C-alpha cells in the first residue's frame, strides 16, 4: 500500500479555523508515516481488513499525474456532491479546505480512516474524527475526484478568492439546450466531489466525511447516489446496461487508450490545469414507462444498436464499427439518420469523443407511481465545448421523446496532486 | 438450478386483463420447463452468465415453506416498494396479480428474464416483456418477498376483494408512537415487495418489472432504495455498521436458529398465514450532524456498546452477553439505564426478539446541506405487537434525540408458495 500521508509542509495548521481545519495536522503530527488509522487495541480485526488490498479491496493511489476516478476502471457505485463555499469564506479557507480534503481523500482511498485517530482512536472525550460506518470495510476501489466550478472563480462579478484572473475561458456555464428543464437547486456548484467505490457504504462514507470536514467553510448544494455504472473505461469490464436496457459504454474511451486520452480528455492548459480535465454533469430523467411500451424494433431504431447484443444495426457484433452508409432491404439507412449513436458519433462531430462515466439512479417515485429513474450522465473531456457540440448534435435525437435533462453542472478537474501536495495547489502558486 | 416455472394450472390466462396479465401464460405456453429466457441467437454470452450460479451469483429458490428474504442471508442492496390496488380493481385482478408476480419472481430470482421471451426473445414488433437492464447479470442472491397490508383486507369499511373476514386481528395499523413524524405519502400500502440482491441493478430491475406487471391493477405508493445492510442473519456474515458508525445486527436472530425463528418470527396462524410472518417497516431519519458532534463516550453510552468492537459496555467482546447489573468505577450502571440496547433487550421485554433486516439510506440532502440519511428499519416478527412492545420500551431511549421516525407500514407476509402455486394462494382457497 502506498504511503498516504502528505509531507508536513502541505498540512501546516491554520489557526483560527474550526477544529476540522486541523484534521491535516492530526495525521502529520504523528510523524509522517501513519499506517493504522485506528487507535483502539480491541479492534485488531477491523485494522486487518481495512488495510488489506484483498479480493474486494482494489486500492487506487491518490497521488499521481491525473486524479483517479477518470481513466481508472469505473466502479459499481457513486456518491456525488456539489458544494458551495460559505458566504464569508476566505481564500485561506478555500486553500485549507482543499488541503484537508486531499489529506482525507489520500487516506480514505487507501482504506484508512479519515485521520490517524480515526473513528475510535482519539480522545474518548472528543467527537471522533471519522464517522465510523466504513470501519472494517476494504478500500473497495474508492476514488475521490475534486472539481472547481465557474462560480468559485467569480460570482456576481466578485473575485472572492483572488482567482478570477486564473479562470480558464473554457470554464463557464453551459448554454441552454433545447428541451432543458433544469432545476437550479440540483444544478451548478462551486466545488464538486465524485466518490466512486465498489461498495456504496464506502462512497457514502467518503462524501459524508468530506462534507463534515468542510463544515463552516463549504456546504453541500446538491448530491446524488448512483448505481450500476452505465459505462466502462476498461476492456476487462463487461459493458453495463442503462435503464432503457441497452449496453452503454461500448464506444467509450478506455482508460488505457493513452492517445485518445491525450487528444480528447486531458486539458492542455492553463498551466494549473494541465493534465486535468473538464467534467460535465447532466441529470437525465428517463421516462421508463413510455419507453417500455415501445416495440423492440422501435427501441433499437432509436438507439441505433440492438438490445441483446448491442451491435450496430448495420450489422456485426458489439464492437463492429457502425456503417452509417449501409441500407436495409427497403433502401432506408440501416441506422436511422436520427438514431442516438449516429448523431453522437465522432464521424459527424469533428472526431470528438467523450469519456463517459455515468450511473443509473432511482430516486423514489412520483405521485402517479412512476419510478423517478434516469441516467446521471458524467463526461470528461479536454474542453466542455466538446460536450456542447455533441449535445447540440443530439437536438433531433429520437431518444429525446423519452428523456429530459433536469440538472446540469460543469467543473474544471485539476490534475492529480503530487505526493505531499493537494489537488488544486497549482491555482494558488 | 431449480425449475422456476409454476405448473400450468396456476397460470391460466385471464381474458380481459391487460397484456401484462398474460405474462404467466407466456412462460407456461412454452411447455413447462423454460430455462433460457433469452430468445436471440446472438446473445449467447448473456445467457451463459445469467443462468450460471457463479461466484457473484448465489441463487435462492423461490418456492418453499417460507418466503425467501426473511431468514436467508441479508444481501447488500434493497429496493422496496409499497403498492396500492387500482380503485376499480377486482378480486380477480388481485389474484391474477399475485399469480403473475409469483411467476415473474420465480424467474427473476433464478437469474432469468421476467418471462420466457424476456427482453429480446419476443416478437420484434411488440414491446419486450422484460425491460432488459439486468440482461447478462447473475441472480446476485435476489430474493423477492411479498406482503399484504391491512387496507387490502378492508378500506374505509369496504371489503373490495372479499377477504375482510380473513384479516388476522394482528394485522392493523400500528399505534402512534411518541415522537412519530410520519409522512402519509411514505407510509402504509396495500401490498409490498421487498427486493434484496447483492447488485442494486438486479433489485431495481425486479421492482421495476413487477411494477410494470401490475400496470392497471396496482401502482407504487412509495418506494425506497437501501444499501449497506444494517443487519445480519447469518453467522458467516460480518456485522455491518449503521450510519451512526456502530455495528448493527450483533444480537439479531440468525437464519439458522430454527428455535428462535419458530418462537419469534414465524406466524402460527390463521391457516393461510401459518409459516409466514409480519413485517414492520419504519423509515427512520438519522440526524447525522448532531450525532457526529457527540464525544465518543457519549455515543457509546447512548448505544450501550463500544463503537470499535461493538462490545457491551459491561465488558467483553462483540458477542459477550451484556451484564446490565454491572457497575462502573463510579458505582453507576456500566450500561446506562436508557441505553438503546438495554431498553431493546429481551430481558426487559418479556423475552421478545425481532429479526431485523434494515438498510441504510441516503436520499440527497436538505436545503441546508445535511445529507437526508437514515435507517430503513425492517423487522420480521410473529406478531406486530412484538414490535410495538419494543418500540414503546424505546420511549426513553437516549437515541431519540438523534433520530426521527418519518414512515411506517405493516404487512402480513404469507408463507412461501408451493412449487406451481403462488404467494397468497391460501387467502383465496
Ligand atoms: C438517458 C440518456 C442517454 C442514453 C439512454 C444513452 C444511451 C446510449 C447508448 C445505448 C449508446 C450506445 C453504446 C455506447 O457506445 O455506449 C450511447 C452512445 C453514446 N452516447 Fe449516449 N445516451 C444518453 C445520453 C447521452 C448524452 C447526453 C450524450 C452527450 C451529449 C451522449 C453521448 C454518447 C456518445 C458520444 C456515444 C458514443 C457514440 C459512438 O461513438 O458510437 N449520450 N448512448
Ligand atoms: C436509527 C435507529 C436505530 C439505530 C441506529 C439502532 C442501532 C442499534 C445498535 C447499534 C444495536 C446494537 C447491536 C445489535 O445487537 O444489533 C441495536 C440493537 C437492537 N435494536 Fe436498534 N437501532 C435503531 C432502531 C431500532 C428500532 C426502531 C428498534 C425496534 C423497535 C430496534 C431494536 C433493536 C433490538 C431488538 C436490538 C437488540 C437488542 C439486544 O437483544 O441486545 N432498534 N440497535
Automatic annotation (TrEMBL), chains A, B:
EC code(s) of this entry: 1.11.1.-
Essential cofactor(s): heme b
Keyword flag Oxidoreductase: yes
Record domain Dyp-type peroxidase C-terminal: where: 239-417
TM region(s), chain numbering: none
Keyword Heme appears in the UniProt entry: yes
Cofactor, how bound (note): Binds 1 heme b (iron(II)-protoporphyrin IX) group non-covalently per subunit.
Native organism: Microbacterium candidum
Chief location: other
Pfam families the record matches: Dyp_perox_C, Dyp_perox_N
Protein name: Deferrochelatase
PANTHER family found in the cross-reference section: DEFERROCHELATASE, DEFERROCHELATASE/PEROXIDASE
SUPFAM superfamilies: Dimeric alpha+beta barrel
Function: Involved in the recovery of exogenous heme iron. Extracts iron from heme while preserving the protoporphyrin ring intact.
InterPro entries: Dimeric_a/b-barrel (IPR011008), Dyp_perox_C (IPR048328), Dyp_perox_N (IPR048327), Dyp_peroxidase (IPR006314), EfeB/EfeN (IPR006313), TAT_signal (IPR006311)
Compartments where located: Cell envelope
Catalyses which reaction(s): heme b + 2 H(+) = protoporphyrin IX + Fe(2+)
Keywords for the protein's UniProt record, in alphabetical order: Heme, Iron, Lyase, Metal-binding, Oxidoreductase, Peroxidase, Signal
Family of this protein: Belongs to the DyP-type peroxidase family.
Segments forming domain Dyp-type peroxidase N-terminal: 67-227
NCBIfam families: Dyp_perox_fam, tat_substr_1
Amino acid at each position: 500500500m502506498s504511503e498516504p500521508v502528505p509531507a508536513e509542509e502541505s498540512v501546516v495548521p491554520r489557526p483560527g479555523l474550526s477544529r476540522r481545519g486541523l484534521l491535516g495536522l492530526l495525521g502529520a503530527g504523528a510523524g509522517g508515516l501513519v499506517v493504522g488509522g485506528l487507535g483502539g487495541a480491541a479492534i485488531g480485526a477491523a485494522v486487518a481488513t481495512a488495510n488489506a488490498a484483498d479480493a474486494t479491496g482494489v486500492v487506487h493511489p491518490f497521488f499521481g499525474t491525473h486524479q483517479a476516478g477518470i481513466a481508472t476502471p469505473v466502479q459499481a457505485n457513486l456518491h456525488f456532491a456539489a458544494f458551495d463555499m460559505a458566504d464569508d469564506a476566505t481564500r485561506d479557507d478555500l486553500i485549507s479546505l482543499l488541503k484537508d480534503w486531499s489529506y482525507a481523500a489520500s487516506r480514505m482511498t487507501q482504506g484508512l480512516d479519515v485521520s490517524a485517530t480515526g473513528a475510535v482512536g482519539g480522545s474518548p472525550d472528543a467527537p471522533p474524527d471519522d464517522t465510523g460506518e466504513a470501519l472494517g470495510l476494504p478500500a473497495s476501489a474508492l476514488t475521490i475526484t475534486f472539481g472547481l466550478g465557474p462560480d468559485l472563480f467569480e460570482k456576481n462579478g466578485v473575485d472572492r478568492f483572488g482567482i478570477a484572473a486564473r479562470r480558464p475561458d473554457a470554464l463557464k456555464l453551459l448554454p441552454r439546450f433545447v428541451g432543458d428543464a433544469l432545476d437550479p437547486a440540483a444544478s451548478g456548484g462551486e466545488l464538486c466531489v465524485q466518490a466512486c467505490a465498489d461498495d456504496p457504504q464506502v462512497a457514502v462514507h467518503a462524501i459524508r466525511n468530506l462534507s463534515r470536514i468542510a463544515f463552516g467553510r463549504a456546504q453541500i448544494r446538491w448530491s446524488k447516489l448512483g448505481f450500476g455504472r452505465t459505462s466502462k473505461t476498461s476492456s476487462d469490464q463487461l459493458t453495463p446496461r442503462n435503464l432503457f436496457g441497452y449496453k452503454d459504454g461500448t464506444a467509450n474511451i478506455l482508460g488505457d487508450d493513452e492517445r485518445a486520452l491525450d487528444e480528447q480528455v486531458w486539458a492542455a492548459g492553463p498551466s494549473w490545469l494541465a493534465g486535468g480535465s473538464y467534467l460535465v454533469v447532466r441529470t437525465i430523467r428517463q421516462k421508463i414507462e413510455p419507453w417500455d411500451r415501445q416495440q423492440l424494433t422501435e427501441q433499437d431504431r432509436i438507439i441505433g444498436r440492438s438490445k441483446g447484443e448491442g451491435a450496430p444495426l448495420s450489422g456485426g457484433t458489439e464492437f463492429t464499427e457502425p456503417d452509417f452508409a449501409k441500407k436495409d432491404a427497403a433502401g432506408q439507412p440501416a441506422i436511422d439518420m436520427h438514431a442516438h449513436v449516429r448523431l453522437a458519433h465522432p464521424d459527424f462531430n469533428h472526431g470528438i469523443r467523450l469519456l463517459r462515466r455515468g450511473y443509473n439512479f432511482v430516486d423514489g417515485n412520483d405521485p402517479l407511481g412512476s419510478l423517478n429513474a434516469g441516467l446521471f450522465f458524467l463526461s470528461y473531456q479536454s474542453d466542455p465545448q466538446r460536450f456542447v457540440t455533441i449535445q447540440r448534435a443530439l437536438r433531433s435525437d429520437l431518444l429525446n421523446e423519452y428523456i429530459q435533462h433536469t440538472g446540469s453542472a460543469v467543473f474544471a478537474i485539476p490534475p492529480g496532486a503530487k505526493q505531499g501536495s493537494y489537488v488544486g495547489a497549482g491555482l494558488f502558486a
